[in-house]
Specification:
- This protein has an eleven-stranded mixed beta sheet with strand order 8-9-5-4-1-2-3-13-12-11-10, with helices on both faces. A two-stranded antiparallel ribbon has the order 6-7.
- Helix 2 runs parallel beside helix 8.
- It is α/β, with parallel strands linked by helices.
- Helices cover 26% and strands 25% of the residues.
- Strand 12 and strand 13 form a beta hairpin.
- Bound molecules: zinc ion (ZN).
- The site of zinc ion has 8 residues, from loops.
- Zinc ion binds next to loops.
Length: 302
């Protein structure tokens, strides 16, 4: 099975260099506000796609259990150090195009600053739709190609690509910006209904961030976020989408093993062999080491 290339943060100090020391307190705090406005207050099981080092995970307080998914194992190790090992957090290294979960498993999913790296965004979104249950909520953040700076650059002839066209723009390898209408079309085609749209980072301007106290920028941004219902001209947009209710009640199972399916052949359940999970249908083996389930590549000999 061939899947699109993934952007790999393996061995990256992204959390430290971008967030902790990168002057992103403003962006981080505005995201916290948006999440509070969009997330259900409580829930059983949430899937965090592109969890990285778990920066946003403590914000999903109302959920009984959270599955942190990232392609990079080292990012998940950092998340483990931050959040600890417990039954509340499940760490999974996997490719978003080959999610190792049974259909309809989750009652919520989040994908923040992650779609940005997807060469096949509709393909990734279809995977998310598949693992969400009836009435499931999906909080999606995407980088907006129609942001004010791009618009001005284009109008003044200083940028070749048009921010108005619907196709994604890859401005750096494996870094994509999307048109808000394209995102909404993809979500609708998959059967989601879009319930809310918030715009973020209205003041992501270096000079402003240096001279205006962060608290004031965060407060102003929190007011402007609501204008996302009418127009989206900021670099970052949050969408709350929901899967239609099908009226079928599903049993919430607590056994973690029951969550997984083989990402290659789709078989479930897998067999727990302590250091690896084995697929009884295609005999592939998936590593379990130090509390991290790894579905990226099968174990050659276990
Ligand atoms: Zn299999």
């Amino acid at each position: 099975m061939t899947t699109p290339p993934v952007c790999n943060y393996e061995g990256s100090d992204y959390q430290t260099s971008f967030w902790d020391k990168g002057g992103r307190e403003y962006e981080d705090r505005t995201e916290a506000i948006a999440l509070k406005r969009l997330l259900p207050e409580s829930g059983r099981l949430l899937l965090e796609l592109g969890a990285g080092a778990g920066r946003n995970t403590p914000r999903y307080l109302g959920f009984e259990r959270i599955v942190l998914l990232d392609y990079s194992r080292t990012q998940l190790e950092q998340a483990q150090q931050r959040l600890g090992k417990s039954d509340k957090y499940i760490y999974v290294a996997a490719d978003v195009y080959r999610l190792p979960f049974i259909a309809g498993l989750f009652d919520a999913a989040t994908m923040i600053r992650t779609l940005h790296h997807m060469a096949d965004a509709p393909g990734a979104l279809a995977q998310v739709k598949n693992v969400l249950g009836s009435g499931g909520v999906f909080i999606l953040e995407f980088a907006n190609k129609l942001h004010l700076k791009a618009l001005l650059r284009y109008l003044f002839g200083r940028q070749k690509w048009s921010p108005f066209s619907l196709e994604p723009v890859e401005f750096v390898k494996l870094n994509f910006d999307f048109h808000p209408i394209a995102i909404k079309n993809w979500l609708k085609d998959l059967g989601f209904s879009v319930e809310k749209t918030l715009t973020l980072s209205h003041f992501r301007v270096g000079l402003l961030k240096r001279i205006v106290p962060t608290g004031i920028l965060v407060f102003l941004d929190s007011l402007f976020q609501w204008t996302g219902e009418w127009w989206q001209l900021t670099p970052s947009v949050f969408v709350k989408a929901r899967v239609a209710q099908d009226g079928i009640m599903r049993h919430g199972q607590d056994a973690i093993l029951s969550y997984f399916k083989c990402p290659d052949c789709g078989h479930s359940p897998l067999v727990d062999n302590v250091t690896y999970l084995e697929c009884s249908s295609c005999s592939r083996k998936w590593e379990v080491r130090d509390g991290i389930y790894d579905f990226r590549e099968q174990v050659s000999s276990a």
